[in-house]
């Protein structure tokens, strides 16, 4: 009997941490669907990922702020590959300003993407993950436990996400679904309009988070690391 090929869906997977996770999982022999609000970006990233292992990447246009969009993304994976084993909720945004200057629009977008978007992702994927006894992994942030000036929206979204994720873990564990929160510190990505360069060599690299996801998936079924904080070894 042929070995079952596992599948994963990663939100915000066309670049940064999401793309780094996709690279590692494909090298592990897992099929990966990545989503982006831009169809072109999703398809371009999937094309590059398929050079690692042909036919193992799928690009999907999807917006985490829309429940039906998330449901469609999950259904696309099921239609393409017949199963969903891992969901990595990675899509995120950051708007940083003093509360006096933070706009209502930036507040709402941050909460909608970073927190409500994960709720929608969970609602869309839990039926399939229940079937596969799968894994739901949230990419949060150290900003989920460490507050800072100019971070009212971002801190609120990530504090909320950590609480959401830990409570969700308790809700679904008896259904055979694992839930883990990964909380990275400084990662070398394009987040907040940053352009990665050689000066970012000290930072966590996207593929490092991918390795953590890979290791979590390989953990014995009896063991669940429910929350993982990740920091650069030697911060600048």
From TrEMBL:
GO biological process: monocarboxylic acid metabolic process
PROSITE patterns in the record: ADH_SHORT (PS00061)
Domain Ketoreductase span(s) in chain numbering: 6-191
Pfam families, per database record: adh_short
Record-linked SMART domains: PKS_KR
Assigned protein family: Belongs to the short-chain dehydrogenases/reductases (SDR) family.
Protein name: Short-chain dehydrogenase/reductase SDR
